[in-house]
Amino acid sequence: MIDTQDITGLVLAGGRGSRMGGVDKGLQNFRGLPLALHTLMRLQMQVGHVMVNANRNLAAYEAFGAPVWPDVIADYAGPLAGFLTGLERCETPWMLTVPCDTPLFPLDLAARLAAAADQAGADIAMAAAPEDDGAGGTAVRTQPVFCLLRVDLLESLVAFTQAGGRKIDAWTAQHQHVVVPFDQPGDDPLAFFNANTLAELHSLEGSGTP
Ligand SMILES: Nc1nc2c(ncn2[C@@H]2O[C@H](COP(=O)(O)OP(=O)(O)OP(=O)(O)O)[C@@H](O)[C@H]2O)c(=O)[nH]1
């Protein structure tokens, strides 16, 4: 049984934010708080420990009160660089990654991923959520940046990234993993809506979801 207190939550705030005009996304205002702090607080309620992965404005992130780690691979290598950085620093058996730009993510994310990993005996559990399929309908798609993973996968991720691997799905496919759909009655359809632009961030800010 995975105890959620044995999970360290990692807020991924290390991106370039190019679709937001190159600003540091995690420091943009969301409902009166920096977006990454809002995310950190939502994650902190669900797990035993938290930390932040950021590559700019480190002092501003440190003011949140959690450890802050910049990427151990140079040149904005993508979210997997954040995974690698977190795994190197994590002191619990499990780590849960959450991007800083999806502020309404489920309040039961950690519990549901942990239960599914337990049940499947998996080393990795990722969320999936309904998304616009581009043809007027919706399709449930994996959201690989919402990833619960065993910390002893570090060695595997070091090898994968040293060989030039950058795609989360290509790495998780090498391990026993389970995908957990968040499309049940009562699940918020906006929960996995991420803000890539400032306009998207403002529209999320006004949504009724707490
Ligand atoms: N550590 C780290 N995280 C990254 C990197 N690139 C993206 N991320 C994170 O991965 C998540 C998804 O990022 P994207 O939306 O694809 O990238 P972004 O940099 O935030 O925004 P764009 O530049 O507009 O694509 C976010 O939480 C980012 O902070 C990176 O190079 N290093």
Automatic annotation (TrEMBL):
It is found in: Cytoplasm. Residues 9-170 form the MobA-like NTP transferase domain. GTP binds at residues 12-14, 25, 53, 71, 101. Pfam families: NTP_transf_3. Belongs to the MobA family. The N-terminal domain determines nucleotide recognition and specific binding, while the C-terminal domain determines the specific binding to the target protein. This is Molybdenum cofactor guanylyltransferase. The lineage of its organism: Bacteria, Pseudomonadati, Pseudomonadota, Betaproteobacteria, Burkholderiales.
